[in-house]
Amino acid sequence: MDFHKKPVTHVGKVGLKVIDLLKMKRFYEKVIGFEVISEEEDKVSLGVGSKVLVELEVVKGVTPKQGRYAGLYHLAILLPTRESLGKILIHLDQQEIQLGSADHLVSEALYFSDPEGNGIEIYRDRKPEQWNWNNDKVSMAVDPIDARGLVEEARKFPEPWNGLPAETVMGHIHLHVSNLDEAKEFYVDGIGLEVVSNLGAQALFLADQKYHHHIGMNVWNGVGIPALPEKEAGLHYYTLMMENEHRSEIAKNLHSMGIEIVEHNDYWEVKDPSGNFIRLCVYS
């Protein structure tokens, strides 16, 4: 099953408020391998082919993030093969990017940050039939990655790294939230996602249609942290792609919970209880 296509509800793109647009554009283009899809004076949309996955926007008066807030922990770029993860591992090492890594059982992942401190994960999934489920919860771990195996896989294919593959998607988003119980109520009862894993009272992982997670959330920045201020750099919004009927159902759920939805032409916007903006979008 493809967990990032219709009819699955999934993250489409992530919008970031940035300070130095040119520097950030160069990083996402040259280091990560996105293509510039559209560009304005204060906004750059990047992705693969015609598919926008990250939008960088200068917000007037924006300043560097100063404290512990809700917002982005990391955006997670999903590659289609182990070979492609191996190739970008070699490329990032050549670019002297400081990397973290983990084998999560369901996936293999690399971690780093962009020039303004936004967390980034680049990963590949193991096949769903290799995931281990127990009572509707998927087993995940933070084990050492087989970096040598990734490099060996990449070197089976002599073509040099040349940006991200066309099949690349935004695999998931992981958020800092202020209260896990409030976040769970919003995302499960309101949005209709399912809890598929948790780390005690520290983190939750939610998904549609039995993916290992479309949204992660944690309180590692502290319980009760405030929303990211409008004029501080970081997460601007992220989109959730869904069926039109499902969006209408979500709207009813959220209205019944007393949560406001603002309807725009291309999307409906809502804030989660931690102040993270979500754009509810319908498949085109």
From TrEMBL:
Name of the molecule in the record: Glyoxalase
Gene3D superfamilies, per the entry: 2,3-Dihydroxybiphenyl 1,2-Dioxygenase, domain 1
Residue ranges of coiled coil: none
Species per Swiss-Prot/TrEMBL record: Planococcus donghaensis
Residues annotated as domain VOC: 10-125
PROSITE patterns reported for this sequence: VOC
InterPro entries: Glyas_Bleomycin-R_OHBP_Dase, Glyas_Fos-R_dOase_dom, VOC_core
Chain ranges passing through the membrane: none
